[in-house]
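Backbones bend. To wit:
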Amino acid sequence: MKATNFNQTLPYAFLTLSTLFWGGNLIVGKLLVLNISPILLTQIRWILTAAFLFLIYHKKIIQNWGNIKSSFVILCLLSLCGQVFFPLNLYIALQYTNPINAAIYLSASPCLVIIINKLVFKDFVTVKSLFGIIISTFGVVYLIIKGDFFNLRQFFNLNIGDFWAMGSALSWSLYCSFLRLKNKNISGNVFVTVSAIIASVFLIPILFFYQFDLSFIQSSFSLYAFIGILYLIIFPSWLAYLFWNKGIEAIGAIRGEVFTHFIPLFSVLYAVH
């Protein structure tokens, strides 16, 4: 009985840990983009994550190669949405806006997931689920603005960072919705490793396209930058995606996506400390 209860609560623990790590990603990302271009940061993040995970899981990748090859198009789609456009848009947004604003836009993703699943997969959405997501979204925004709705006036003065943050939320919503298409025979760690490799390859032409724009390539590294990148590799890039995928696979995208609301809350806690 206890084992059953543990197995039932494990997906929720996975999803909570993922949002904890991604909440830190917003704060660390904001600090890193002060000295490292968003495109270069995203490329560094995924190429080092890919190298690190490949060293650990290369044998399992070989064993799973048949499944990887047969679902390569889906893997590319998921990698583009989840590993390329989601963090890239987010890091660009953080150049112009603060982590809290970016997180508020991200909290809209559960609603977007419902819309995508309804339009693409014809999912039936219960009134209870819809009402729960609306209430939780309202609750998150209320807590972040500290109950002062006059703080919402800042969202009527949108800058370019707000639009990049919206793009990040849309990319993440697409990733969560299409995650159901992932080949179930590909293990979690292999999936994250292959996704990181694909993301690294996709980012190469983007990086080269902007290499002549010095504003994108001027970067400086320090011990703090090294520690920040190390955090991005281990927690937001590896463990967060691994745990999130396991959680979504267990309880579904609509129920699981509600946990995205924890990201702005954790970001606020990180920012306070």
Residues 36 and 221 are 8 Å apart (CA to CA). The chain has 13 helices and no strands.
